[in-house]
Amino acid sequence: MPSTALARRYAVDVSSDNTTWLRLAAVTDRNKQVSPNKIDSTTFDSNGWTNTEVTLQSWSLVTKVLRQPTAGVFDPAQELCRLTQGTFGDNIRLYVRTYDKFTGAEAQSGRAIVEWNEDKTGVPDLNSVAITFTGDGALTNLANITVPAQPLPVLVSASPSGAGLNGLVTVIGQYLTGPVVTTGVKIGGVNATSWNVVSDNAITFQVPAGSAGSAPILVTTAAGASNSLGYNRT
């Protein structure tokens, strides 16, 4: 790591369930703030000095990202944040965590209300978005996060739903490059007939023979196996 610590050394991950995490891609800025709510608690016998008490704590995290699709697919972590726009209740909240992406240190996590707003709109500007996470509860210190040299693949979605034999399915996720030869993509425990790595965020595969009904999708790379993505085939 360089002798001068740069803002971009911090990773920002988001999750809808606090279990499956996606790292925000193309981060250009990150600003975390923890603000105590302070009130004056001075009494007449304080010898002329003021006293202060903290009654509440609030936190926020502003992250700026560039919107740059690869092979027509936007970063799934950015999309998870974007889809909170205009919603309410649980749908406008995500779990977020931030940490040093080289060492896993300084890790903190919390649940937050998400705001997604265009950051620059001028003709010469790059397409930039500011994502503001406003804490909904405590910001919790975590033990150091393990940062693997090659992360496990993460699966987010698959479309179209209900594909059958020889149907073409597109899986969206992260770290999808380099599936193990012949056994890297499975549906319902059966090896896919064939597949094509569109980008690190997308794989298309052809559905093999199998029974109708539940057929979870799994992608395995040299780093290991992904989460199991629920899918129903015809």
Q: Can you offer a commentary on this structure?
A:
There is one protein chain. Strands 1, 2, 3, 4, 5, 6, 7 and 8 form an 8-stranded antiparallel β-sheet that branches. The protein is 3% helix and 45% strand. It contains 1 helix and 18 strands. The protein has one helix at 76-82; strands at residues 10-15, 22-23, 27-40, 52-66, 93-100, 108-118, 128-135, 140-141, 154-159, 168-174, 185-187, 190-191, 194-199, 202-206, 213-214, 217-221, 224-225, 232-233. It is mostly beta strands and 234 residues long. The protein is elongated, with a radius of gyration of 22 Å.
The computed structural class is mainly beta
Percent helix range? under 10%
- Uncertain parts: none
What portion of the residues fall into strands of 2 or more residues? Answer: over 45%
The strand count comes to 18
CA radius of gyration: 22 Å
Distance between the termini: 50 Å
Query: What is the number of helices?
Result: 1
Mean pLDDT across residues: 93
| Broad shape | elongated
The major β-sheet equals:
8 strands, antiparallel
Order of helices and strands: EEEEHEEEEEEEEEEEEEE
